[in-house]
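Re: the request from the purification team.
They wanted to know what the chain is likely to look like in 3D before they choose a buffer screen. I agreed to run a prediction and write the result into the notebook, where they can find it.
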Amino acid sequence: MDWDKLRIFHTVAEAGSFTRASAALNLSQSAISRQIGALEADLKVTLFHRHARGLKLTEAGRLLLEATRDINVRLTAAEAKLYESRARPSGPLRITTTVGFGSIWLMPRIREFLVLYPDIEATLVLDDRQLDLAMGEADLAIRMAPPQQPNLIQRRLLTVRFFVYAAQSYLKKAARLEKPEDLDNHRLITYGDALSRPPLPNARWLLELAADPARPRRPIITLNTVYGVFRAVQCGLGVAALPDYLGDPDPALVRVLPGLEGHKVEAYFVYSKEVRNARRLTAFRDFLVKKVAEG
């Protein structure tokens, strides 16, 4: 049986007349009548009793209408699933951010995101250096400073605050630490890279805080990633300034000098104009914005 003819039959049977079916199908009544006549000839049955007041289904017509209703329901459901499949975010998504932020803050949220969007294939590139989004090294970045490159779209995501932390195991054996001047008597861990510009503003601020110029402080170690500083503090190596997303969740660390807050860093969600309409990217952006608002 020709589905085009069955579709026309279904519409005519539901409408009850060629006139109403003509409006629904955007076909002339004569064209509809010819298709119904051809279908009856193919099946060798009469499907309608034609009356001046309209059409009435024959027994064969009622049987066929039951079948076409079932087919129509199935096709409508299939169409809805196809639309949902097209609309669902999918495909590769390459994300880059710093080692510490990606490992500690972002990782559990990406897990939740991928449960919601299983058709997205995520790649997470953790690097404290900035990948070139314009050159396609990543689809999006979460950066601890506004982007300097042109043609990048940015959205402020959250504020990261730095505080002073030490491990409980370190504090049990160390000298008293109640005021900034007491830092003179502690091992200090700093973040930086002597080969390049400081990765964060005032990255070595603990060395200068209430320090005596005649007795300059020196770090016991300097590391080139915030995550490296975090691990050094965890190991009891000394005292350091850490972002709150690293220090606060760890029960082994203590915020020392609690009234003292270091610098703040704004984290930005950044992407190029070329991918701004990609559903997988906008889904991830909206998800993170929602998570920040909730938390």
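For the purification team: Residues 195-199 have pLDDT under 50 and may be disordered.
Please add any questions underneath this entry.
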